Amino acid sequence: MPAFFAERALLPTGWANDVRLEIGADGLLTQVAANACADGAELLRGPLMPGMPNLHSHAFQRAMAGLAEMAGNSDDSFWTWRDLMYRMVGQISPDQLQIIARQLYIEMLKAGYTSVAEFHYVHHDISGQAYADPAELSRQISQAAASSGIGLTLVPVLYSHSGFGGLAPHDGQRRFINSTQGYLELQARLQPILAAQPAQQLGLCFHSLRAVTPGQINEVLAASDKTCPVHIHIAEQQKEVDDCLAWSGKRPLQWLYDNVEVDARWCLVHATHANPDEVSRMAQSRAIAGLCLTTEANLGDGIFPAVDFLAQGGRIGIGSDSHVSLSVVEELRWLEYGQRLRDQRRNRLYRRDQPVVGRTLYDAALDGGTQALGQPIGRLEVGKRADWIVLDGNDPYLATAAAEQILNRWLFAGSDRQLRDVMVNGQWVVRDGRHADEEQSGRAFAQVLRTLLGA
Questions:
Q1: What is the DSSP letter of 160?
Q2: pLDDT at 67
Q3: Would you list the DSSP string of 275-315?
C-alpha cells in the first residue's frame, strides 16, 4: 500500500504537521495521520493540499482562446463573441475534439485542477446529423480525460431551442440540438461507458432556460437518477434576464426557483445577475453558484454578489469555462479582486471563524466544486480519492510562510509556477511541473490549430 509523507498538509481540520497518507488499490485514501513517522513513505517536497475541482468547462473553446480580442464593434459583447464560437465549433472533427480536450486537461492538471465537470453540448456531425453512435463525441471527451489522467464528471447538455418559449434553433446551433428522448437515450448510452473508467461519472445538464422548455426540464428530471448532479447556465447576461422577463414576467433565477425544486444537486453556472431575493433563495437551497471569473470578465458578464452570498451561507465553486485562463490562482484571485473593485474595499471574502482570505477562497471552492461534481474528492481524509497537489517547498515565499499564510502567499503573490506535483486517483500525473505526455500532446494540438485556422 503506497505511503506518502508531507511535512505540512491541509486537512479538513486545518494545516497539520508530519502527515502520513496511505492509498489503496482503488485510489482512495486508507490512512491520513498527523504527527506521524515517515518510515517507508515517499517524502513530498512541499505543502500538500487537496486538488481543485473545475466545475465548468467547454473543452472545444480552448481552441479559440484569445482569438476574439479584436476591437471594431463598440457594442461587442457575449453575443458577438458567440458568433466566432459557432464558426469554430462548426469545423471540429471527433479526433480533433479529443486532441483539444486532452491538451486542455493536461494544462488543467499542471494548473492544479484534478477533476473537471465537462459541460458538453457538441453532439452531432458538422452537418447537424447524429453520428452512427450518438455518444461519439462524448466518448472522445471521456477518452481525453482518461489519457490525461484528470477526473471527469461528464454533464452532456440538453439543448433544443434558440430562445425562451421554444424558439426554433438556428444553423450555428446545429451540432448541439437534441430532442428530450434523444437526450435520455444518450444518457443511457453513456452510463456504462463512464462507469468503466476510473474517476469518471455522469451528470445531467440543461444548457439554459432559453435552450429548453419547462416541459423538457420536468421530463428529464422525472426520468433520471435523483442523486446525480444537475448543471445549468443561468442569468449570465443582462440580455438573458431581459428576454426571460419578456417571456415569463420573471427573471431567470426567479423562474427556476418558482417552477423547479432546486436543491444541493444543482450547479447554477454564473448566476451573475442575481438580485438580493435570488441570492437568499440560492443560499437557502444549498445549490452551488458556479463562478468562472476569467471568462465572466472576458465576456463582460458582470460581477456576482459573492460577499452577500457567502454571508448567507451560500456555496461557490470555480470553473475555467471558455479557457481564456487555466489557473486556479487567477480564478480565486479575481473572485476576491472583483468584489474589492465593486466595493472599493479590501479583504471582502472571509468567514468570521476564518479571517485568512486565501484559505476562505480555497476551502469554499473545494467544497463547492466537490458538491457540483458529485465525486469523493476535495478533502485529504480516509475514503476520499487521492487527488492532491504539492506546492514547491523550495520556493522562498512558501518555504518561509507560516502555515496559515501559505495560501495567501500562493494565491495573492504567486503563480502556477509554484505548483510542483499533482496526483489523481492515487497516480502521479504531474511531476516537477511536467506531464509525461505534454510534448506529444502539444504537437498534436498545434497541428489541429493549424488545420482549424487554415494556417
A1: -
A2: 84
A3: -HHHHHHHHHHT-EEEE-HHHHHHTT-----HHHHHHTT-E
- Give the cell for residue 317: 465553486
First to last CA, the chain: 50
- 270 given a catalytic annotation: yes
For position 81, what pLDDT does the model report?
A: 67
Angle ∠(203,204,208) on CA atoms, nearest 5: 135
Q: Which of 161, 231, 321, 435 is catalytic?
A: 321
User: Which entry of 120, 124, 207, 270 is annotated as an active-site residue?
Assistant: 270
Q: Which residues pair with 231 in a beta bridge?
A: 205, 267
Look up the pTM and report it.
Answer: 0.96
CB atoms within 10 A of CB 136: 15
State how beta strands 266-270 and 288-291 pair.
parallel
pLDDT at 27: 98
Question: At CB < 8 A and 24+ separation, what contacts does 40-45 make?
Answer: 40/3, 41/3, 41/4, 41/5, 42/2, 42/3, 42/4, 42/5, 43/4, 43/5, 44/4, 44/5, 44/6, 44/7, 44/390, 44/421, 45/390, 45/392, 45/393, 45/394, 45/420, 45/421
- CA–CA gap between residue 414 and residue 409 (Å, rounded): 6
- Residue 55, exposed/middle/buried by CB under 10 A (0-12, 13-18, 19+)? buried
Whole-number Å distance between alpha carbons of 318 and 269: 9
Condensed to tens digits (0 to 9), the pLDDT of residues 251-272 reads: 999 999 999 999 999 999 999 9
Q: Is the pLDDT assigned to residue 441 strictly greater than 60?
A: yes
Distance CA 71, CA 68 (A): 9
Residue 326 phi, psi dihedral angles, 5° rounding:
-125, 85
- Looking at residue 417, what DSSP letter applies? G
Q: Check residues 412 and 82 and name the one with the higher pLDDT.
A: 412
Of 349, 206, 195, nearest to 266 by C-alpha is 206
Q: Does the annotation mark 321 as catalytic?
A: yes
Beta bridge partners of 29: 23
What CA–CA distance (Å, rounded) separates 75 from 73? Answer: 5
Retrieve residue 302's grid coordinates.
Answer: 458582470
Closest CA to 107 of 413, 412, 434: 434
